[in-house]
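Quick start: read one record
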Amino acid sequence: MKVIAFGASTSSSSINKKLATYTLSLMENVDGEVLDLRDYSLPIYSEDLEKTSGIPAAERFCFWTGTS
């Protein structure tokens, strides 16, 4: 059986990814892989990216205008 696991976070210190990795390690007789969401260009909030690049312009616009 093939199992793909991932933590729903792009943080470099993601507890979700650590839990997915640990859970997969407990499964026997599976062909497992843990995906890192940072490897994919997805429109997901990133705490690490915000620390290095700031809040994206679109998000600042929504914050100041009260739109979503």
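Helices lie at 15-26, 47-53, 57-65.
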